[in-house]
Amino acid sequence: MALFMLQLAHGEDAVIEADAAGRTAAGEIVLERTDHNGKAERVHTYQADAVTAVFRRGPADGGYTWLPQPSNGTWWCY
């Protein structure tokens, strides 16, 4: 599991635990978990205009920090 922080267009941040986050070709931000059989299922989907930035919690010098994910294009982060 990983922690993802989404900065939402209406001004709030959402911190969500998921196995993966991604941006689809349509620009949607999706978060997925994997079940005990290895099948991925979406737990959250955000429309492209609802999210202004996505970050993944990751290691940094001396601790952990929020690592920014690409602001455009299709990508997956685990």
Task: Please characterize this protein's 3D structure.
This protein is mostly beta strands. It has no helices and eight strands. The strands form two sheets. The chain has a four-stranded antiparallel beta sheet, with no helix packed on it. Strands 5-4-3-8 form a four-stranded antiparallel beta sheet, with no helix packed on it. The chain is globular. The mean pLDDT is 95.
Features of the shown structure:
78 residues; mainly beta; four-stranded antiparallel β-sheet; globular
Largest β sheet strand count, sense and barrel closure:
4 strands, antiparallel
Number of helices: 0
Question: What is the succession of H and E elements?
Answer: EEEEEEEE
Share in β-strands: over 45%
Number-wise, the strands total 8
* End-to-end distance: 8 Å
Mean pLDDT: 95
Assembly classification: single chain
Give the helix/strand class. mainly beta
**Mind telling me the C-alpha Rg?**
12 Å
Low-confidence stretches: none
The spatial strand order of the largest sheet comes to 2-1-6-7
Principal-axis shape: globular
Q: Please bin the fraction of helical residues.
A: under 10%
How are the SSEs ordered, and which strands pair?
Blueprint: E1 2-8, E2 13-18, E3 20-23, E4 29-34, E5 40-46, E6 51-60, E7 63-68, E8 75-77
Antiparallel strand pairs: 1-2, 1-6, 3-4, 3-8, 4-5, 6-7
